[in-house]
C-alpha cells in the first residue's frame, strides 16, 4: 500500500520512537521561554540536558561577582530595591552613601561596613529593615546562616531538597544565568551552582538530617512572605519535574486498542503507541500529585477521587505546554517593532516526548476539532503569556484540588488548599511579572477551556472504545500505597 494512503505514517505523525525509559529523561528547566526556536526535531527533554549534576562545578565566578554586585548594589545603593546597573562601582557607591549618612548624624560610632549601618539605610516599613544580612545567593532577606552561608528560607530549602534528593539540573543557556530575588526560580542549575560557589556545604545538609534535635525558627523568619511563597513555588516545580522523571514502566493499560475498539486497522499501530504513552503519563501525574503540599494528608478516598476526575485535564495542560515549542511567530510585515507578534497556525502538537501529531493526521483520524481547540485555546494562549514550568505545575495543582467534585469527604479542606494555591500563583505573578497586571486572571481563564476540552476528549475515548477494563481506581490506590 502506498504511504500516502495511510493516516498515521511516519512523515505525518512525527517521531514515534519506542517509549523506553531513556525517552523520558527529565527536562529540569522550568522556563520554556529560553528554548531556541530553531526547530530541529521533536521536543525531547533528554536531548536538552547539559552535563552537570548537583555535585559538579563549573559556575562562572566572574558572573557570580557581577550578580552579587547587581543585587547588593541595587538593594543597598538606593534604598528602593532597584538594581544598580553600575556593576563595577557598586561597592564604592555603597561606601560613599554610607559615609555620607554617617557624617549627617546617623552613625552612632559604627564603621561604614558594619551591619548596623546597613540596617539603617531602610525605613521602618521596608522588608529588609529588620535584617542585618542579605541572602548570598539571591539578595533577598537572609533568615540566618544556613549550611555555612547567610541565605533566605527559599534558597536554604532549595539547597536542602537538591542534596537530600540528589537532584540533577540542566541549564539551557551558557551556565551563567542571573540569580537574584526575581529570577531565582528561572534556572535551577545556575542557582545550585551559585549555592556551591557561595560556600554552601553539602555535608552540612547530611549532618542536619542525622541530628535528632530540632531547632525552632524565629517568628520573623517564618512570617517572611517572600520566603514562604518561594518555598511553595519550589514545591510545585519540584513535583512537576520529579513526576516527569518517572519512567511509567509499571503503568496499567487503562487506554488500549482492543478487539472492540472503533479504530481502523491502518491506524491501530499509531493509536496503540499513543495509548501506551498516555498510560505512562497517567502514572507520572499520580507521582506529581503525591508530591504536592497537603495532598497526602487527605483521606485515601479523596485522593483517588481527585486523581480520577483531574488526570485528563492535567494531561491536556501538559500537552498544550509542550506544544508551545512548535508554535511559530512572526513580526508584522511592515517591520514595526510595537511588541505585537503574529502567531502562525500551528501544524504540530507534542503529545509526549518523541511523539508529535501533525494536523493532517488529526484530520484523517477525525479529531481535528480537538487538535485545533488544544492548540488555539490553550497552547497559543500559553505561548503569548510565556508560561513557565512553575506556572504549569501550579495550574495543574489548581485543577487537581477541585472541591466541586461529588463524593469528597474533606471538601472544606480541599477548597482551602485551592485558595492557598490561588494566592501562591497571584503572588508569583506579581513578583515575577510586575508589569503584567492581568497575568493572574489570564492564566485562570485557561481553566474553563481545559475543562471543556477534557470532557470532549473523554467522549471520544468512550466512542472509540479505548478505555480498558482495568480499574483506574485500583491502580491509583496501589501507587498511593507505594513509598515515595
TrEMBL record:
Keywords: DNA-binding, Metal-binding, Nucleus, Receptor, Transcription, Transcription regulation, Zinc, Zinc-finger. It holds the Pfam family Hormone_recep. The keyword Zinc applies. Residues 220-483 form the NR LBD domain. Residues 112-123 have a biased composition (Polar residues). CDD domains: NR_DBD_RXR, NR_LBD_RXR_like. GO terms for molecular function: nuclear steroid receptor activity; sequence-specific DNA binding; zinc ion binding. This is Nuclear receptor subfamily 2 group B member 4. Residues 132-207 form the Nuclear receptor domain. Residues 83-102 have a biased composition (Low complexity). It is found in: Nucleus. One of its GO terms (cellular component) is nucleus.
